[in-house]
């Protein structure tokens, strides 16, 4: 297939490329790690559709040539909708309903269009800790002196490990891992969930933290609190105090991870557009840590190694 004749669309942080065809479809091309980016991606979309969650449907596949075609959902993301719409409550409350449906899914095994069996993995503490190290391995070396790196990594990693030990909710649910409004499209008056290939089973607070403390869209504390309360209302049996505990921990660690990912995208992949979001990520981290004894050690370590000036720096 000659992809040059199609319009290349703005992509995500994965190795996929998206092209708009003339047949109301999007060509998803991925030569690197195509098993996850094409096969698993479609299998999860199919699972979502079967469970009442709108996701892109497969139209055609040519796995041998590294691409699939999915339905075209247009150009209106929920992020764009929120920036224009004053009734943010309704939009976010509709999104919370989708999150509730997502967390009701109990499927563990999926069948791909190549008839492979795929087991949705666990979001284990080992995996969470490994992800948190993206902050240590990519961001820290860019902002502190080489002589301090070794001690900084050791101290902050210890703080990370101690925080993971303080998670309280044991129930495992489907976790999208990037459940934020940039990964939702508005099409035919419905919300569609996209970019779902990294789904795992994990903590019920993780996607809620992704949604509420989303680095891509600044929202007020009042709106954040309303979304949280709406989630609690729809999950009447959940222990709210444990949820608040895990939400805070996962929000902080997730946004530190994101800072690491954004730095890696800039350094390794030359995708620098994400750097401008780092100061807001720091702002949310500081807000969640403020006056919360859970973060006493981590807050001290971060203050020791990453100055306020560095955190608010406008990357170019």
Characteristic key phrases:
single chain; 316 residues; alpha+beta; Aminoglycoside 3'-phosphotransferase, Chain: A, domain 2; 2 domains; 5-stranded antiparallel β-sheet; two-stranded antiparallel sheet; 11 strands; 49% helix; globular
Overall shape: it is globular
Proportion of residues in helical segments: 40-55%
CATH homologous superfamily identity of the largest domain: Aminoglycoside phosphotransferase (APH), C-terminal lobe
First-last Cα distance: 37 Å
The top level CATH class name of the largest domain? Alpha Beta
In total, the number of strands is 11
The CATH architecture category of the largest domain equals Alpha-Beta Complex
Strand order of the largest sheet: 1-2-3-5-4
What is the H/E string? EEEHEEHHEEHHEEEEHHHHHH
> How many structural units, i.e. domains?
2
Helix/strand/pairing category: alpha+beta
CATH topology of the largest domain: Aminoglycoside 3'-phosphotransferase, Chain: A, domain 2
């Amino acid at each position: 297939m000659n992809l040059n004749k199609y319009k290349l669309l703005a992509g995500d942080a994965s190795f996929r490329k998206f092209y708009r065809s003339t047949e109301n479809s999007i060509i998803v091309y991925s030569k690197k790690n195509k098993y996850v980016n094409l096969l698993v991606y479609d299998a999860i979309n199919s699972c979502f559709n079967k469970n009442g969650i709108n996701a892109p449907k497969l139209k055609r596949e040519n796995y041998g040539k590294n691409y699939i075609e999915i339905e075209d959902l247009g150009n209106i993301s929920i992020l764009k909708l929120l920036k224009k719409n004053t009734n943010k409550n309704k939009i976010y409350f509709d999104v919370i309903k989708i999150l509730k449906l997502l967390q009701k899914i109990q499927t563990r095994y999926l069948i791909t269009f190549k008839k492979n069996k795929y087991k949705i993995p666990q979001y284990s503490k080992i995996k969470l800790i490994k992800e948190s190290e993206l902050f240590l391995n990519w961001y820290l070396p860019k902002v502190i002196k080489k002589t301090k790196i070794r001690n900084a990594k050791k101290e902050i990693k210890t703080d990370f490990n101690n925080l993971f030990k303080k998670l309280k909710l044991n129930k495992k649910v489907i976790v999208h891992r990037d459940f934020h409004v940039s990964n939702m499209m508005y099409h035919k008056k419905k919300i569609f969930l996209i970019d779902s290939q990294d789904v795992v089973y994990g903590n019920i607070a993780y996607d809620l933290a992704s949604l509420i403390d989303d680095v891509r869209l600044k929202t007020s504390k009042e709106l954040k609190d309303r979304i949280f309360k709406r989630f609690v209302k729809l999950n009447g049996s959940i222990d709210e105090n444990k949820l608040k505990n895990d939400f805070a921990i996962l929000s902080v660690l997730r946004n530190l991870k994101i800072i690491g990912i954004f730095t890696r995208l800039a350094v390794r992949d030359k995708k620098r557009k994400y750097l401008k979001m780092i100061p807001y990520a720091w702002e949310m981290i500081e807000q969640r840590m403020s006056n919360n004894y859970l973060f006493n050690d981590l807050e001290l370590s971060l203050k020791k190694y990453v100055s306020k000036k560095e955190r608010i720096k406008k990357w170019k």
